[in-house]
Specification:
The protein is mainly alpha-helical. It has three helices and two strands. Helix content is 49%, strand content 6%. The chain is rod-shaped and about 75 Å long. The termini are far apart.
């Protein structure tokens, strides 16, 4: 079984040390976290809540119900 991978230039790499170095570089680039400054500049998208925020009257009704128990 022959192990072959492509480097950044799409050249074939076949020796064990070069293959390991290529995988190391690949995953270090893949898993590198953006610098803090970059993250602050990006817009963060959040999902809207499925349940709306309770109103003041919702709290009052719940408290009254608890007092009856």
């Amino acid at each position: 079984m022959t192990n072959v991978v492509k480097d950044e230039k799409c050249d074939m790499v076949t020796d064990c040390c070069s293959i390991l170095a290529r995988w190391k570089k690949h995953f270090s680039q893949l898993l590198t976290v953006h610098r803090v400054n970059d993250v602050r500049l990006r817009k963060i998208h959040t999902a809207k809540p499925l349940v709306p925020e309770p109103s003041a009257s919702d709290f009052e009704i719940s408290i009254v119900k608890l007092k009856r128990l």
